[in-house]
Design goal:
It is a single chain. By secondary structure, this protein is an alpha+beta fold. It has a domain of 56 residues. 43% of the residues lie in helices and 17% in strands. A 3-stranded mixed sheet has the order 1-2-3.
C-alpha cells in the first residue's frame, strides 16, 4: 500500500479559536486528485473554502509562504521602509 499525502498548511493568528460557528477561512490544498476527493468531508469540516493549488503536496506550503511574504511586504511598505 502506497502512502498518499495531502498538504494543508494553516495560517492563523496564535490564540484564534476555530470551530463550528466561528470564522473559517479559505484553505490551500495540494495532493493527488483522488486522495483529495476521498478526504473531502474532513477537509470541509476545517475550511469554508478549499482551493487545490497543485498535485504536488509541497506546493501548498510555497503558496502559504508567498502569502506571508506579501503580508510582510505590505506591512513594511506602510511603515515607510525605515
Amino acid at each position: 500500500m502506497a502512502i498518499e499525502e495531502v498538504d494543508q498548511p494553516r495560517h492563523e493568528p496564535p490564540g484564534r479559536k476555530r470551530g463550528r460557528g466561528r470564522d473559517r477561512q479559505s484553505e490551500r490544498l495540494a495532493g493527488q486528485a483522488d486522495t483529495l476527493r476521498r478526504e473531502r468531508k474532513l477537509i470541509e469540516k476545517s475550511a469554508e473554502r478549499a482551493r487545490v493549488v497543485s498535485q504536488v503536496p509541497k506546493m501548498a506550503n510555497l503558496v502559504k509562504l508567498s502569502g506571508n511574504f506579501l503580508i510582510a511586504s505590505v506591512i513594511e511598505s506602510r511603515r515607510g521602509g525605515a
